[in-house]
């Protein structure tokens, strides 16, 4: 079972890792990587809010780039 987001305890979708030698921060899909990287686990919300420290570069390597908004899940004509 995947640990939850460190900030809000929501569902983890992203692993954040810092590469100090390159001054880069990597955002990766958490699925399948949680045992590979010794990273910081984040949900969609906090992954999207992440900003690298000053002078660092953020490398977003996640496959999913478009994050659906909660409103997008409500389909016209199919509401309750
Ligand atoms: Zn979160």
Notes on the structure:
The chain is mainly β and 80 residues long. The chain has a domain at 14-65. It is built from 1 helix and 4 strands, in the order E-E-E-H-E. It has a 4-stranded mixed beta sheet. A hairpin with a 4-residue loop joins strand 1 and strand 2. Zinc ion binds at residues 5, 7-8, 10, 42-43, 45-46. The site of zinc ion has 8 residues, from helix 1.
Supply the helix-strand structural class.
mainly beta
Q: How far apart, in Å, are the first and last alpha carbons?
A: 32 Å
The radius of gyration is: 15 Å
Number of helices: 1
State mean pLDDT (0 to 100 scale): 80
What labels describe this entry?
80 residues; single chain; binds zinc ion; four-stranded mixed sheet; globular; mainly beta
Topology:
Elements: E1 14-19, E2 24-29, E3 40-42, H1 44-49, E4 57-60
The structure holds zinc ion (ZN).
Concise summary:
The chain has one helix at residues 44-49, and strands at 14-19, 24-29, 40-42, 57-60. The protein has 80 residues and is mainly beta.
């Amino acid at each position: 079972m995947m640990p939850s987001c460190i900030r809000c305890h929501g569902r983890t979708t992203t692993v954040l890792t810092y590469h100090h030698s390159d001054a880069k921060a990597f955002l990766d899909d958490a699925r399948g990587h949680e045992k590979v990287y010794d990273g910081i686990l984040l949900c969609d919300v906090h992954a999207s809010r992440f900003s690298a420290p000053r002078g660092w570069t953020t490398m977003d390597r996640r496959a999913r780039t478009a994050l659906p908004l909660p409103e997008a899940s409500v389909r016209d004509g199919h509401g309750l």
